[in-house]
């Protein structure tokens, strides 16, 4: 145990002597140089990290592209994309024609078709609500007839 304690005290003494000696012997020129280096590091560090992140992302994308090259289907090679439908979403004849027929790189009018689909859904829901309310009113009238007859 004396050997370990002796090593620890020697290391402690050497570290304190070196640190104190370094800062005690520094001139104004060395202090300015140290401040410039630390300040430059503090200012440039975020940009260096972003640059490294971009390089890492690019490398990751290349690796994932290499992994996917072997799994490309013939339809993807021809330029057709698989249509993904969400549960509960109605199919449109326009979308089916686009999937079965020609397919372009840019899906022209896709947002407009979605907007039109939403407008039609809202109109149908409004009409169903009106029918439901009118049916409820008719049922209320039928009940009133039975209540008034007695």
> What can be said about the biggest beta sheet?
none
Distance between the ends: 108 Å
Computed over alpha carbons, the radius of gyration is: 38 Å
Helix/sheet category: mainly alpha
Outline: elongated
**How would you state the average pLDDT, rounded?**
80
Strand content: under 5%
Number of helices: 5
Q: Got a strand count?
A: 0
| Uncertain stretches of 5 or more adjacent residues | 94-98
**Helix share, percent:** over 70%
Give the ordered list of helices and strands.
HHHHH
Task: From the structure above, extract its key features.
transmembrane helix; single chain; Trafficking_Pga2; 150 residues; 0% strand; mainly alpha; membrane; 5 helices; Protein trafficking Pga2; elongated; transmembrane
Description of the structure:
The chain has 150 residues and is mainly alpha-helical. Helices cover 79% and strands 0% of the residues. It has five helices and no strands. It has helices at 2-24, 28-69, 74-78, 93-100, 110-149. The chain is elongated, with a radius of gyration of 38 Å. Residues 60-114, 129-150 are annotated as: Disordered. Pfam families: PGA2 (PF07543). The chain crosses the membrane at residues 31-49. This is Protein trafficking Pga2.
